[in-house]
Amino acid sequence: MKETFFGVLQEVNKVEDGKLVPIGIIDYIKELGFIQPHELKPLEVGIRWEIKDGDTHIHEIYVTSPHKNEGEVLVDFNDENYTDAHEDLYEALLMYADFEPDNFGWL
């Protein structure tokens, strides 16, 4: 299993009125209801994922930043109560998130 960390500045796209609209990953998690409206957003989340049979499989998103809920799983993609919100987030992450960023691209 691999882990990738995403902060408040990293974005994905969502579909809104038939158009792609950029949105921060953490903002999208909150917008979809995985973080309650009255709760503060974490500064960073971790995503646990793996490549199986050539496909990327995302397992969960959890809080990693210094936060009162550090370690808390925000989104479990293996949840028996999988919803459209899970599907929208999963698809956005697969399409637009960089799970293996090139940290040395500036060399």
Please bin the fraction of helical residues: 10-25%
**Annotation, overall tally of beta strands:** 6
Largest sheet: spatial strand order:
1-4-5-6
Task: Give me the Rg, rounded.
Answer: 14 Å
Uncertain ranges: none
Overall shape: globular
In the residues, how many domains can be counted? 1
Alpha plus pi helix count: 2
Strand content: 35-45%
Order of helices and strands: EEEHEEEH
Spatial separation of the terminal alpha carbons:
28 Å
Mean pLDDT: 89
Instruction: Summarize the main sheet.
Output: 4 strands, antiparallel
Secondary structural class: alpha+beta
Oligomer: single chain
How do the strands and helices of this protein lay out in sequence?
Elements: E1 2-7, E2 11-16, E3 19-24, H1 25-31, E4 44-52, E5 55-63, E6 73-76, H2 84-96
Antiparallel strand pairs: 1-4, 2-3, 4-5, 5-6
